[in-house]
Amino acid sequence: MSDATPVSIPFGKPMLGPEEAEAAARVLAGTQLVHGPVSKAFEEAFAARIGARKAISVSSCTAGLHLSLFSTGIGAGAEVIVPAMTHVATAHAAEYCGAKPVFVDVEPDTGNMSPPRVAEAAGERTRAIMPVHYLGLPCDMDAINAIARKHKALVVEDCALAVDATYDGRKAGTLGDVGCFSFYPVKHMTTLEGGMVTTNDEALAAAIAKRKAFGYDRMLGERKIPGVYDVDALGYNYRMNEVQAAVGLAQIAKLDGFQKARARNYADLKASLADVEELTVFEANKGKSVSSHYCLNAVLPRNGKLDRADIMAVLTAKGIGTSVHYPRPVPLMKFYSEKYGYRRGQFPITEWLADQTISLPVGPHLAEGDCGRIARAMKEAIQHVKKTS
Ligand SMILES: Cc1ncc(COP(=O)(O)O)c(C=O)c1O
Hints:
The protein is of the alpha/beta class. The chain is built from twelve helices and 14 strands. Helix 4 links the parallel strand 2 and strand 3 (100-104).
């Protein structure tokens, strides 16, 4: 196939096959569709994979982030430190609790929350710090945990893009007090929608499990008389159902293959873009951190001379799917800037990334030769935009 032939390489693609369909059909043929043995098996398999004592399945990563803060009593008057460069879900979790998200800028070479900025932001009201492992590269957890210890703050890792990422040989999701994962369709593995909370703290795990199901004092299998229970805490309905869990179990069985493909594609694409001086591509390893290779971010220069929208339009025309992580610093999103008065200029690194990063695909859906096609398309896009600007 020549480069002139339109190829269609989506940014991400759920990798579902007959195994997931059969697992889902087995659940649907039975009668227990929620709170059942499949969710329990999925939780155990995920906990074992991550090396966490406990895993609690939830309806989304966002639900997990909310429950992690809510279950530890974080509420009005509390401050929660969040990177400006993240999905809005991280900050929303603090807002749901009535707490105030305090945004900090990120490191220019990783996109992760900058420990010196976290130290500056931490104070008397700090009750939690939420490191987001940007595009799958773990944050500097030694530094973040040290700041958290000093302020007796909870560390909630946002591992939405960090399944199997490691820091000092340990997996993301075990590096703070609690970790939250996303199984949205284009993530490392999917349950359609869905998420998982991991922790080594059994009391916290029990508190989260209760609050994901209304605050029931007895779960389905624990009730002496069917249908009879009390409620001893405020809770939500954030459960994952048995079909989702069955799909998740089938996905875990394939995860090693998916991850190998991601690492290989990342390395291939990065090598193919190495001679493009206009692009900054973050490393997949830094210090103790090893990425889960969610995507490859190609960041255009800070001077703004190469217009991202123009480059992305050329890539789209060439059949290359792209995304942006994330399109605007969260504190500059309308809701947050109006509520807290944040202004442009306060988060210079996040602002650069939000304006100039392009996420390129490296998922297991890529076929032989796709990395070369993506790299060639990117080079042509840059040349085209340079000529026409
Ligand atoms: C860093 C981060 N946190 C949280 C989320 C939300 O995940 P979910 O859609 O499972 O709620 C996302 C979604 O992409 C994300 O990128």
